[in-house]
């Protein structure tokens, strides 16, 4: 971590990248990827693999990711390991310099991939110290910048970080959502075969997925569980959802403050609950369901982001190791009488899943699609689609 005296404004020799925080902290490093600067919330991710999936996760819109695993980029990139067409995370902070790719699936060096997608990287950062600072002080506003000549207006970057309003109160789902409806038919990936193309059967139960920032592997898991899927934009109305004649409705993950997205999403979900449509929500979708039944959401101190988060099931006490990515959560104490906790985080006791006792609706805060992450929770897709098969 850089000192916070006047010397911090002068780049040390060889520094071509910098991270400045809203409190004036300046952290120097070596830039890679695209040149320029970007402002957002600085968070950390503890996953050891899957950096390309993490960078393309729409839930990371408005965020700069510090990877706690020191070796990021060593396996390169490829066109299959993506959760959206373009990266949504603003930039990446890593400990070690990116080395030459060493994986048979590689098609492009991480540096070139970032350049192509206009995303900034910084290496040579003490990510352990940065992570500790975030754990103690919370996720700060920051600016990540890269200039090959090492020329930076640090004072201006600090002011940019200070003046950024932060994610609280910010609706980002509209920015990352699809703008029109489309069909999804592909299933899961297997080694040597790729993705299972056109796997959805024409007579399979029909799921309408509301896209607040969908990850592709969620759609693939729905298809693999036996559904056919129609995706609709985050702002789709109740009538637009029902026009597709769904057997069930999926509420997707996504970025930003759930209370802000809920302004237009919650009224739709309330109507879907009234007509008794089975509902399954993940991450932001979980928060939307919570808000729809009268619970509250809040911004977490540091959030949960990684592929090693233990979650306890309340019904049988079994523990699932899960993938998480969220900075907001549903307040357990605010759950109404008709909603019960089904999963609890063993890291901090926060709510990780709920179900309604009077409606066919449930949700989880974590990511059972496991992209990246463990596959302990794939059963949730089978549980949801299995319910639709019984009622279809």
TrEMBL record:
GO terms for biological process: 'de novo' pyrimidine nucleobase biosynthetic process; 'de novo' UMP biosynthetic process; glutamine metabolic process; L-arginine biosynthetic process. Keywords: Amino-acid biosynthesis, Arginine biosynthesis, ATP-binding, Glutamine amidotransferase, Ligase, Nucleotide-binding, Pyrimidine biosynthesis. Residues 1-195 are annotated as: CPSase. The keyword Nucleotide-binding applies. Coiled coil: none annotated. Its EC number is 6.3.5.5. It comes from the Bacteria. CDD domains: GATase1_CPSase (cd01744). It catalyses: hydrogencarbonate + L-glutamine + 2 ATP + H2O = carbamoyl phosphate + L-glutamate + 2 ADP + phosphate + 2 H(+); L-glutamine + H2O = L-glutamate + NH4(+). It holds the Pfam family GATase. Belongs to the CarA family. Composed of two chains; the small (or glutamine) chain promotes the hydrolysis of glutamine to ammonia, which is used by the large (or ammonia) chain to synthesize carbamoyl phosphate. Tetramer of heterodimers (alpha,beta)4. This is Carbamoyl phosphate synthase small chain. It comes from Sphingomonas montanisoli. The lineage of its organism: Bacteria, Pseudomonadati, Pseudomonadota, Alphaproteobacteria, Sphingomonadales.
